[in-house]
Amino acid sequence: MTPVAQTINGWTRKVPAWPLYILAVIPPALLFYKGVVGTLGIDPVKEMEHQIGLYGLQVLIATMCVTPLRRFTGINLIKYRRALGLITFFYITCHLSVWLFLDVQIWSQIWADIVKRPYITIGMGAFILMIPLAVTSNNWSIRKLRKNWTKLHKLIYPAVLLGGIHFLLLRKGIQLEPLIYLTIIVVLLVLRLPPIAQRRTARA
Amino acid sequence: MGFKPDLTRHDVTPKGLYLNRRQIMAGAGGLALAGLGGRRAMAQDLEPNTLEEISGYNNYYEFGTGKDDPAKYAHMLTTSPWSIEVGGMVDKPGDYSMEDILSGVDIEERIYRFRCVEAWSMVIPWNGFELNQLLEQVGVQSGAKYVAFETAYRPDEMPGVKFPVVEWPYVEGLRLDEAMHPLTIMATGIYGEPIPNQNGAPIRLVVPWKYGFKSIKSIVKITLVDEEPPTTWNKANAREYGFYSNVNPTVDHPRWSQATERVIGGGIFAARKDTLMFNGYEDQVASLYEGMDLSENY
């Protein structure tokens, strides 16, 4: 382990995970406040919807970085991983709520969108995959489910991939930003393929 | 032309007021309506967007794909001198300078609904002239059936063209009867001022019954042709964007519904509004498409 990793691990022993839950409320609260007072630009609903969705994808990617970071650098952030996962779910729930209540508003159209629009179907699919993960992100579930808990939580892999595709598809034309996110996601998934994951573990 | 738009210059907030229109509208509403006896019922709930909204929320991918990118970067575009190369099946082809063009046309104010294919909308008080005036000036030959338009392509002045989001330069087209229709204008101003660069300076097309991307900006080339010309979004994704692209609440975009729209400027709790057939210009333009299957020719 490098000295940098040792220093970081020394810090993280002292810093608990719970403040993350409090800090995480700030970005969506700020977005909502700005939306209400009218300082969120010319199209505040889209801004809120897209920004909170992007936060969700970013925190999800951060969650996915925890394991490879430990494997390749020795930096251990595992104690924050549950918080990151739950914050992702919170953000995506906010994203979905803005879409439902402020953007589309019309229930018949919402249902039609979910069924007929591939990017919305894909986004909803990712959200549904995350529900059992959020529900079982606690010590009691880990004890109850034992080995199945690890299996169940592999659902995050399809969920993040669907999230990245959802982002790519909702833009008009093929755009750079979602492609960058999708590339990062694919790299993080490839790092979990048995040949790569096992080789590095063996060497360490 | 016997055409009378359903919105008149009386629908425009006076220039001195539009910048802080929202504070003033509540009080002035009754007064304004009193002077507008002849206006059609549908027009009465139309309120032009502020200049800030119109010039701060744009799709102009030559300057970037973000809605605020055009406002940030479009100042880089040199809009004077400017000329349009008119060619193809016309009697008088050639380079027409802005001065040449403007000397032969009548500029008037047109308050039009503007409906983006992305399901948002605004109301914009354009200043411009009917495209048919320019076409008459250059003399359309009898075999011409379509008009092709092209936007300026200037990598030095357009940071967005580095990315192949769509194929550059941006091109659009209309059937000749659509181009000759009195609702179809070439806009050179908004709210009585020269059109902001991000809105397509110095001269752009406005076809109010079609989705916004048909109303091509910063035009440098107009060609009269006898076959349907290629159009940028149709080339990029033919399944999603047809040549006609008329506003039609009954024909959905493959990725979202076109039945309703978000009205820009309503705040976060504003209700969506039903999208109108041909964006509310059905009476004037439906006859152009008689006998056509609009779900086939989307």
TrEMBL record, chain A:
Assembly state and interactors?
A: Heterodimer of a catalytic subunit (MsrP) and a heme-binding subunit (MsrQ).
Superkingdom of this protein's organism: Bacteria
For the Ferric oxidoreductase domain, which residue ranges apply? 57-163
| Gene name for this UniProt entry | msrQ
Instruction: Write out the function statement from the record.
Output: Part of the MsrPQ system that repairs oxidized periplasmic proteins containing methionine sulfoxide residues (Met-O), using respiratory chain electrons. Thus protects these proteins from oxidative-stress damage caused by reactive species of oxygen and chlorine generated by the host defense mechanisms. MsrPQ is essential for the maintenance of envelope integrity under bleach stress, rescuing a wide series of structurally unrelated periplasmic proteins from methionine oxidation.
According to the record, cofactor stoichiometry and binding are noted as: Binds 1 heme b (iron(II)-protoporphyrin IX) group per subunit.
The major lineage groups are: Bacteria, Pseudomonadati, Pseudomonadota, Alphaproteobacteria, Rhodobacterales
Which species does this protein come from?
Maritimibacter dapengensis
UniProt name for this protein: Protein-methionine-sulfoxide reductase heme-binding subunit MsrQ
What protein family does this chain belong to?
A: Belongs to the MsrQ family.
**Chain ranges passing through the membrane:** 20-40, 52-71, 83-102, 114-135, 155-174, 180-197
From TrEMBL, chain B:
Q: Write the Enzyme Commission number(s) for this entry.
A: 1.8.5.-
The answer on whether this UniProt entry bears the keyword Aminoacyl-tRNA synthetase reads: no
Catalytic activity entry = L-methionyl-[protein] + a quinone + H2O = L-methionyl-(S)-S-oxide-[protein] + a quinol; L-methionyl-[protein] + a quinone + H2O = L-methionyl-(R)-S-oxide-[protein] + a quinol
Gene Ontology molecular function: oxidoreductase activity
Stated family: Belongs to the MsrP family.
What do we know about how this protein assembles, alone or with others? Heterodimer of a catalytic subunit (MsrP) and a heme-binding subunit (MsrQ).
Protein name, entry field: Protein-methionine-sulfoxide reductase catalytic subunit MsrP
What's the source species for this entry?
Maritimibacter dapengensis
